[in-house]
């Protein structure tokens, strides 16, 4: 097999030797080859090579081969299993030749061996086409895919915000999480920051990839109390004035305008991320339960407990809504006879939306269409068109309580997915199904009868109407048996895979068919930020990832193995990295110790050891005296 991309300088080495070198090379050492030769590194990162290794080591292929051995042990390695060959065996030119060989006893001839080799090669090509999760035009790094699917994984805990007052140190809990790419990821450094509201009303920024500070360290923190409803200096001890701990999607970031929007009860607070100061406040009639992501030139979709609103940050709110409400007769009559129409608003008969997604455009992941999908603690996923808002265009029946939504600009067919899972489509049929249809995939994760429910819906465009095209559901798949034993809390796209977190403390990766599991990882417990505990090392102790996002860089070209999974547990932020060792530890964020403080701590430790020895000696003395009946009286 000839390796693509071979330059003339590397032609002196045969392909077999290069393949053997790469097969014995640790995948994590390939990224270090850049120090030796960039061309050698590029050769070792060949997409076709790592795509084949992903296929051969995939659980999908292992299950397929095991199923074939059970069904037909003698024919599993000889004949391709596409639908055309099964319906018409004589259509293949090798069928008659094979019978003639068996009749003449020439099945061990060189020609027969070549035919079997060609048949095996066709079967391998067909299997790889059925497994291939990528779509035409989709950019994937198959080296990163191999590491994410088969390499070791580590859980890294980002630096924990703390407050020190009167000599006492306490942890400040994070109440949400979203990624911030300054200038849309084109700042020249590839900066990626995590934005989170803290429990004391402040805002914290973490450097995820270490472009401006230590990886995982806190880059900046705002003043406290700025996210409280009454502002700094007020009585904000009540939970009703703080960020609601039950709202998962409470942060939305505008990367180009350097703004972040935080849902605080029924208020939407706009923050300047460069100055970490409040810019504006907008109040709604009911508590905010979900926020959509912000894309360019698209209004923010705000979900309240009883309705859906469209909020355009470019259109400044009326002063009466920003200022503190006053009970004044003039204001009452002014509001009654105000000719300004009310903002569009879609009421909900079933309350509490928890996840809102804007459908992406084909070929542009950063751009979105006019379609909005809303899910929550109700049995249907609602579809709105921004041009016809607040009319409900249609709905998708789920039957489960959906906690999270994700979308990809690629089609999904449940029938094709089931046939491909058994490896029965030919390579031409798979290519035709991917290229000949346009559509979207909507992924939903939630709860059904106390178990995890992973649902995939195929969406397509219906017949055009005078305004535009409507969406329709043409296929669906619901995995409520093997997805998770606990409720699915958050779902996201990670490369060519679906990743989700469940209520059992695990993060799982599935193929895009929603049925084949690739790998799983248990988050565990953050040992470095807590005091020693008797129960900390128990297997049942562990954190839950309430929200997960992919850290894929938005600038090109991407660095190999640079797409990790950032998660929020409801209190802390963590990062799943695909590395042999953790990227950082909690002690890496500690300040350099003061020599005087070290001496004082050593003296305190020595005194504690002496007291422990004295108490042990006294206890031994009491036990010894008890042997002579001189111990303390009993009863």
Automatic annotation (TrEMBL):
Tell me the segments the record calls region Disordered.
71-130, 584-605
Which segments show compositional bias classed as Basic and acidic residues?
Answer: 105-114
GO biological-process terms attached to the record: protein polyubiquitination
Query: Residue limits of the F-box domain?
Result: 7-53
- For bias kind Acidic residues, which ranges apply? 589-601
Which Gene3D superfamilies is this protein grouped with? 1.20.1280.50
Q: Which SUPFAM superfamilies match?
A: F-box domain
- Name the domain of life this protein comes from: Eukaryota
* Pfam families xref list: F-box-like
CDD domains tied to this protein? F-box_unchar (cd22139)
- List the protein's name: F-box domain-containing protein
Organism expressing this protein natively:
Hypocrea atroviridis (strain ATCC 20476 / IMI 206040) (Trichoderma atroviride)
